[in-house]
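EI: anyone free to look at a 216-residue chain?
SC: sure, send it
EI:
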Amino acid sequence: MNELKVEKADFKDLEKGTGVLFEAFLNEGFTSFIFDFSKKNTKKYLFRAFLLRTKLNYFAGEQILLAKKNGKIAGICFLKRNLKIPRGLFLRTIFPDFFLILPLLFKFRFGNLIPGLKSLKLTVNIEEPYLTLEAIGVGKDYQGQGIGKILLNKTHEMAEGDPAIKGVYLFTADKKNKDIYEHFGYDIVEEKKEKGITAYHMFRTTSLRLDSDLNS
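SC: here you go
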């Protein structure tokens, strides 16, 4: 039996789901550019940072989608509307986890930090509201089974299902991923070239918006 289900994450799924995302992003262009994995315990502290981000997204009410195969987490997707988490809940979430990730400050490739952060900054305007595909990852044992495509299609389905949403935004520092996203209808809205890194800021306009533009 190879049943695959896509569902919203429960709190109990967050740590395992974050583990899937973390492993998928270790070799991602931006992550490997910013963090020095030759330093001791970089992975440990970075995983804690990933988990804290997951918890903040969850408590803010953002969409965290899981692809489960035979009940096991095969893939994960973060889809954001930049919702605000209440201040009290924010503080309860980051403490004491915030102090557990402080050693991560010494695991950066400091020469790459400024160009890396500059590459993230989008300087063109995208019409709001839109969804941000913050991250998508597939477990190493589930590669090549179309799970990333299923999660991506689910993302597009959610965007298309809301007539107010103009499209889906993402960025990637991997040319291979850039080519994949172009295949799924994303266009480059800005290409940021900094020292040692190139980031592709991409946007996929919903079909409703495309129809509106064509008929205007």
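EI: The chain has one domain: 4-215.
SC: 👍
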